[in-house]
Design a protein that fits this description.
single chain, mainly alpha, 6 helices, about 0% strand, globular
């Protein structure tokens, strides 16, 4: 059942993004910013964590999940270190995911030798 919920919720988030790109004047970059910001706002209001609890990776892997990670990190760091946590929390919480994306992207570029269009 966990896999089904992850698939349904993650698919719904992605489908909403696709509909926004296909039927509105929003560019992909606008949808990216919208989804990350929405993830931050929903997390700050305490509304995104129940979705994560329900869907797992289906809610954390899409773009709103990145916003959720940033917001959760800031909240934890502010509770721990005060106002300095505003500057450090998001970076600390997302550092592993960003580092993995850079390292794996670089490795794929070495393996597959991409060419400019």
């Amino acid at each position: 059942m966990d896999y089904l919920m992850a698939f349904l919720i993650g698919g719904l988030i992605c489908a909403i993004g696709q509909v926004l790109m296909d039927f509105t004047p929003l560019a992909p970059a606008h949808v990216l910013v919208l989804f990350v910001t929405l993830g931050v706002i929903l997390s700050a209001l305490g509304l995104y964590q129940p979705l994560v609890d329900l869907a797992g990776a289906g809610a954390t892997v899409p773009l709103p999940g990145f916003g959720h990670t940033l917001a959760r990190g800031v909240i934890e760091e502010v509770n721990k270190y005060g106002l300095l946590g505003i500057l450090t929390g998001g970076l600390r919480s997302a550092a592993a995911g960003i580092t993995a994306a850079i390292v794996f992207g670089y490795a794929m570029a070495l393996i597959f030798n991409p060419k400019p269009k």
